Amino acid sequence: MKSRQQENQLRIIAGRWRGRKISFAPVPGLRPTPDRVRETQFNWLAPFLQGARCLDLFAGSGALGIEAASRGAAQVVMVDYDPVVVSTLREQLQKLEFSEALLVQQDVNSWLQAKAEPFDIVFLDPPFRENRLPACIGLLEEHGWLAAGARVYIEAEKAYSPELPDSWDLYRSKSAGQVGYHLARRE
After folding, report:
1. Which terminus of the chain is less hemmed in, N or C, by CB atoms within 10 Å?
2. Burial class (CB in 10 A: 0-12, 13-18, 19+), 159
3. What is the DSSP string of 70-117?
4. In 3-state terms, what secondary structure has residue 42?
């Protein structure tokens, strides 16, 4: 039987922090992206990660943003509204000595309405069953958050089929268990 602390840990798969375990906040509904899904996702993103600016929306456990940083992203901005989540992420980033991360405690939709800085890679993994994806996708496109050729990783319930702007191309999709995950490219 796993202890409570082990239940709230995940392993960084590759890069400079490969094999390190990080803790995440014991917040109801928080579900880190499974190792197998992260492995596939980061294989898809490998050619684009080195030196990339990454945006991790609904950062939660930090699995996606921290994995990107471990694999060579130059900067990671992590946005989540929950103060416990943000505090736990801050502690984990300090333990990893990763100062190139910016943590923002704010509602994602509100934050996306601010002045945009284009990102190369965006991780979009909102809480399931809250229907947050359509608005976020619209705000990313309409407010200039995406660099030319940006990649957008979308994680949702397995049955979700992303409706994307005309300037986006969905070029990878898979599922594992109850999770559907997709990679889109902005033309």
Report:
1. N
2. exposed
3. HTT-SEEEEEES-HHHHHHHHHHHHHHT-TTEEEEES-HHHHTTS---
4. helix
Residue owning tokens 């990763």: 98
Amino acid symbol at 28: P
Instruction: State how far the Cα of 158 lies from the Cα of 181, in Å rounded to an integer.
Output: 8
The continuous run of DSSP H or E covering 11 comes out as strand 9-11
Residue type, 14: A
33 within 8 A of 67, measured Cβ to Cβ:
no
Structure-token pair, residue 140 = 């990313």
Measured between alpha carbons, how far is 179 from 92 in angstroms, rounded to an integer? Answer: 26
pTM, full prediction: 0.93
Give 17-43 pLDDT, tens digit per residue.
999 999 999 888 888 888 889 999 999
* Residues 85, 27 contacting (CB under 8 angstroms): yes
- Tens-digit pLDDT profile for residues 82-132: 999 999 999 999 999 888 899 999 999 999 999 999 999 999 999 887 889
Taken in order 55, 165, 149, 145, is the CA torsion positive or negative? negative
